Amino acid sequence: AGVSASVVRALSVVPEWRPFFSSGRIWDTQQGRHRTTLIAGQKALILRDLSPDAHRILLVDDALGKDPVPEWIEKGASVDSFPLPYEGPGVNEESLKAIEAAILR
User: Which of 10, 66, 68 is CA-nearest to residue 43?
Assistant: First the structure.
């Protein structure tokens, strides 16, 4: 959760990343049309807005252990959750395999 303009500004000095992160794909929980007090719920709803025709969406986040997506949002938005360790090492080989298995379920 933060301010998307900060991300766009940071990307302006890393030109090799710009093809992968266009400003139209950078959102944060302070923008959008969904009002819920849970940040993870907002993230799930934003993902659905960004990909309305996706059959399935997987939200991967390290905060899900402390701030889970409510079941009604997971069902309503067709978004599945995959928690990473909170403020842990991020995505590594082991977690990539687990994410892949979650995607293929």
Answer: 68
Side-chain half-sphere exposure of 48, counting CA atoms within 13 A: 16
Q: What whole-number distance in Å separates Cα of residue 29 and Cα of residue 40?
A: 9
pLDDT tens for 30-80 read 665 667 778 899 889 888 888 889 988 999 999 999 999 999 999 999 999
* pTM, two decimal places: 0.70
> Angle at Cα 18 formed by Cα 46 and Cα 1, nearest 5°?
35
- CA distances (Å), origin 90, targets 9, 19, 54, 66, 75: 23, 22, 25, 16, 26
52-58: long-range contacts, CB 8 A cutoff, minimum separation 24: 54/78, 56/80, 56/103, 58/82, 58/99, 58/102, 58/103
